[in-house]
Each structure stands twice: as structure tokens, then as C-alpha cells.
């Protein structure tokens, strides 16, 4: 099979919630195309679904080393950092992403939740308001 076939198989496995099989498929695709940020991101997502957050973080970092302008990979990395309770690191990413995409309600929500986890309630409220998510706290 070629890289495209392995990638498609990986997505089929993700849809079927067969995350270990998806991971295996993306690993096979990466053997063929190791410089694909998309494949590294897909691998990271599979690892994330398996609860293997440290490995997912490494995969997202690898993807960002290849393409550091893909905001979706940055967002996935920030989500994993939150899972790892690395709120300060996640907040730096959300600060950046909300500047680049100020109309994204989802990013503002994530930033607000991150701030709330850090005990910064007032700042969290502002983030929720920026995301048009009122009275969440």
C-alpha cells in the first residue's frame, strides 16, 4: 500500500474507534512519508485517543517542526498540554491562537478553561466573554 492508502486506513480505523489499528496505519504511512506534518498530526491524534498524551505531544511537536503554521496542530498540542495539566504552556498557545483567530469561540472557550484551571477566574471570564460564552462560571 502507498502512503495515501495507509492514511485512509488510519481514518477508517479512527472512525471505527480502533485507535491502536489507526496508530499502526499512520506509522506505516510515516515510514513512506516521514516529512508529512499531517501524518504526524494524525499519529498524535491516535495516541491522544489512546490516552498516551506524552507520546501524542511528541508527535504534535514533530508535526509542528515540519509545519509550524498549521493552527489545528497547535490547538491539538494545547489540548494535550491541558490533559497533562501543563496549563501555562497551553495558555501560551491559546494566547497566540486567539490573537491569530480572534473570532474562534472554541479557542476562547479553551483559553478560558485553561485560565480557570490556573485559578485566574477574572481573566477566564473575559476569555469566555470574548468567545461569547457568558456566565459559564
Residues in β-strands, percent: under 5%
Q: Given the helix and strand composition, which structural class is it? A: mainly alpha
What is the alpha-carbon Rg in Å? Answer: 16 Å
User: Helix count, per DSSP?
Assistant: 8
Number of domains: 2
Q: What do we call the CATH topology of the largest domain?
A: Serine Threonine Protein Phosphatase 5, Tetratricopeptide repeat
**Would you list the SSEs in sequence order as H and E?**
HHHHHHHH
Quick one: biggest sheet?
Answer: none
Helix proportion range:
over 70%
Mean pLDDT: 94
* Termini gap: 50 Å
Give the CATH level 1 class of the largest domain: Mainly Alpha
Shape call = elongated
CATH architecture of the largest domain: Alpha Horseshoe
Strand segment count: 0
- The unreliable regions are none
Report the CATH superfamily of the largest domain.
Answer: Tetratricopeptide repeat domain
